[in-house]
Amino acid sequence: MQxxxxxxxxxxxxxxSGRMSxxxxxxxxxxSSTPLIRPFWYYCVLFSPLEYIQMLFxxxxxxxxxxxxxxxxxILDGVTTNPSLMAKEGISGTEAVLNHYRKxxxxxxxxxxxxxxxxxxxxxxxxxxxxxxxxxxxNIVVKVPMxxxxxxxxxxxxxxxxxTNCTLVFSxxxxxxxxxAGATYLSPFIGRIDDMSWDGIELIKEIVEIxxxxxxxxxxxxxxxxxxxxxxxxxxxxxDVVTCPLSAITGLFYHPLTDIGLAKFLADHKKANG
Length: 274
Ligand code: E4P
Prior knowledge:
Layout lengths: L6 E4 L3 H4 L1 E6 L2 E6 L5 H10 L8 E5 L3 H10 L4 E3 L2 H6 L5 H15 L4 E5 L5 H14 L3 E6 L2 H13 L3 E6 L2 H9 L4 E4 L1 H6 L4 H15 L4 E4 L5 H10 L3 E4 L1 H6 L4 H18 L1
Parallel strand pairs: 4-5, 4-11, 5-6, 6-7, 7-8, 8-9, 9-10, 10-11
Antiparallel strand pairs: 1-2, 2-3
The site of erythose-4-phosphate has 11 residues, from helix 9.
């Protein structure tokens, strides 16, 4: 999970009663303290690294115009691609593919993860390909499918300090395996689950529960997003990241009352100012 330390301490009344309660990293605590050690608890609460949970926004595309537009919106945290998305843009051949990833990394700028998927399906092929991808640019995260060889490769990349995104995840069991292997990101495909009349958001909730209970570090990257509603549902479910087509992100902007309200403000301003 992405959350780092989340510290909320209820300090009221403790000064007199010596009792204190709060929540550190999502876990509740309650304790009493003698006046002697109370300053220590104050210190812990005040100077613990405060980092609030915020869902990241990735764009799920290999289209450079869409990536540029999402970047210009000022709310983009990263990009995911897959072989189908690369093919859709007509990118073929190893050099062209690597070059395209480089371009994506340059557009989004430093500190924004870009998932690049391996094509090999065997362990040594994935490792070879993944290393090459990781060397391309510091933003690259090696995307690996949820298979036996894929999990082995993720565990290997974890040892090497290479970031990974475990893709094609459709169950909580798979999510546990990926986290055990040390995947940086886990991509459950919620839209494809919905397409089969199951509930993709329920899977996100289940994985959030497991990862929180087990204190796994892997970030839940909700993928295969189909609509703005999916984004809102993922935020409510506690996903760490959503990766979506640009249309789902821009769909979040629209509300007819915003348009009506703005038109009225402008009309009233015009009336008053001529
Ligand atoms: C995730 O990383 C995948 O690229 C993607 O979200 C799959 O989405 P789709 O089901 O719309 O193809």
